[in-house]
Design brief:
By secondary structure, the chain is an alpha/beta fold. It has one domain (6-287): Rossmann fold (3-Layer(aba) Sandwich), CATH 3.40.50. The protein is 35% helix and 19% strand. The protein has helices at 6-26, 28-32, 45-67, 86-90, 103-112, 151-164, 182-190, 193-199, 215-224, and strands spanning 75-78, 96-100, 119-123, 137-142, 165-178, 227-237, 241-250. Strands 3-2-1-4-5-7-6 form a 7-stranded mixed beta sheet, with helices on both faces. α6 (151-164) packs across α9 (215-224). The longest helix has 23 residues, at 45-67. The radius of gyration is 18 Å and the shape is globular. Bound molecules: S-adenosylmethionine. S-adenosylmethionine (SAM) is lined by residues 16, 20, 32, 52, 79-81, 84-85, 99-102, 105, 124, 143-145, 149.
């Protein structure tokens, strides 16, 4: 795939920023976790933040089961929203920086922060992470973020995650892939997701735009930036998607061909019978609900 024109990436970025800032102003907790019954301000704040604590506990246990110890150093939480994951992450690393494209999300995350300087938030309206030095983090986390942005943008961020990680650092990356049904995959390449859903008269319409990337392609992008996939857990996500949790180690190299390590197996052809590092079974399916503009 060739490099996209920078103007296209800028246009995509502006659209992403406007969408998220509007969502953050209208119904911020629902924008993050879109459970239908929690729409219109119905999330209880404590309950909302507790979902982040349990998610972080569970995912760091998964990371330890593959990598042994957690790496030292600060953690970058990319697409931090209200800091739901940033705050608990800060308790497991020397400090945490939550980065988001929405000024409204960042302001609300700062207001909700209970961990002082150990947990900070940063508005990043760029298609890169240029504000951060090479090798400045031990861990990167991104959850329910990349799936909502055009692929050219997320490809750039995947490379940036590897740049800002120090050698030996780890990244937990959640991403989606369109299901391995060949007709759907072909449609997905030529039509926007929402049109596919309409064509199929799919009853569960996605609340937000969704973008899928093949796991193998993500692996190639990461490898070209010095990352090695060391664990994958996959589960179906709604009817048309696969949800991947990918654990990536930053190697000392500056880019290589993908190498899969023992236990991190490629997906089976139907994309379902993954046994590598467990299945994903948590909150992501909540994205499938009524569209924001429908009742
Ligand atoms: C569904 S929320 C998830 C928030 C958080 N990761 C969590 O799980 O609680 C997605 C967040 O990603 C942010 N986001 C989307 N595109 C981004 C980008 N290009 N750079 C930084 N943040 C972005 C949005 O503003 C929003 O706060």
């Amino acid at each position: 795939m060739g490099e996209p024109h920078p103007a296209m990436v800028d246009k995509d970025l502006a659209g992403v920023r406007e969408t998220w800032d509007r969502l953050a102003s209208e119904d911020p907790m629902w924008a993050v976790l879109s459970r239908p019954e929690k729409r219109h301000g119905k999330w209880d704040e404590d309950e909302f933040f507790e979902t982040g604590e349990s998610f972080v506990e569970e995912k760091l246990a998964w990371v330890r089961s593959i990598a042994g110890e957690l790496p030292n150093g600060p953690v970058l939480d990319f697409g931090c929203g209200l800091g739901r994951l940033t705050q608990p992450l800060s308790q497991h690393f020397s400090s945490a920086v939550g980065v988001d494209i929405s000024a409204t999300m960042i302001a609300r995350a700062e207001a909700a922060n209970r961990h002082g300087d150990r947990c900070t938030f940063f508005l990043n309206e760029r298609s890169d992470l240029g504000a951060f030095d090479d090798a400045s983090f031990g861990f990167v986390c991104t959850h329910i973020v990349l799936q909502h942005m055009p692929l050219a943008l997320s490809a750039g961020y995947l490379r940036e995650f590897m740049r800002v990680l120090r050698p030996g650092g780890l990244a937990f990356i959640q991403m989606n892939e369109v299901t391995r049904n060949p007709v759907l995959r072909l449609l997905h390449r030529v039509l926007p997701t929402e049109q596919i859903h309409a064509l199929l008269k799919h009853r569960e319409r996605a609340a937000f735009s969704m973008y899928g990337r093949d796991l193998e392609e993500a692996e190639r992008i990461l490898a070209s930036a010095g990352g090695r996939v060391i664990g994958v857990a996959t589960a179906p996500y709604g009817r048309w998607w696969l949800n991947h949790h990918v654990l990536v180690e930053r190697t000392g190299d500056h880019g290589s061909s993908p190498t899969w390590v023992a236990g991190a197996r490629r997906p089976a052809p139907d994309g379902r019978s993954r046994e590598d590092h467990g299945a994903v079974a948590d909150e992501e399916d909540t994205v499938f609900g009524p569209r924001p503009d429908s009742s």
